[in-house]
Design a protein that fits this description.
Length: 121
């Protein structure tokens, strides 16, 4: 039996993967602390292999500078030059809220998606 292949347009669709990270010292836990821990929003572009990181005050969209953070990310998306991308994440509700806000303010087309459970990519 032959192998199915994706349409060429779908194969070339850049995938922007989003996740939260937390900075820590050597030997410290990588889990977020209850108080005083600022997450880093990490974004990876599958096409260019580029990485972006945004230090943000909290996960999700419930912080006062969320509009500024979203605008910075939208400007970076414009600089990438894409008109259509796929957004991927681990499905965390706070992250999905932020991704939805980014997608709604960017003038390109966003194909939403969630990574498979346990998929480290």
């Amino acid at each position: 039996m032959g192998h199915c292949s994706r349409p060429k347009d779908e194969q070339r669709l850049p995938v922007l993967s989003f996740d939260y990270a937390f900075l820590c010292g050597q030997g410290e836990s990588t889990e977020p602390e209850e108080e005083g821990s600022n997450p880093v929003l990490a974004m990876r572009d599958s096409a260019s292999k580029g990485d972006w990181a945004y230090l943000i005050p909290a996960e999700g969209v419930s912080f006062s500078s969320v509009d500024r953070v979203v605008q910075l990310i939208v400007e970076d998306l414009k600089l990438m030059g894409y008109k259509r991308v796929a957004f991927r994440s681990d499905g965390e509700p706070a992250l999905l809220s932020l991704m939805n806000m980014i997608g709604s303010r960017w003038d390109g087309e966003v194909v939403p998606g969630v990574s498979a459970p346990g998929d480290p990519a």
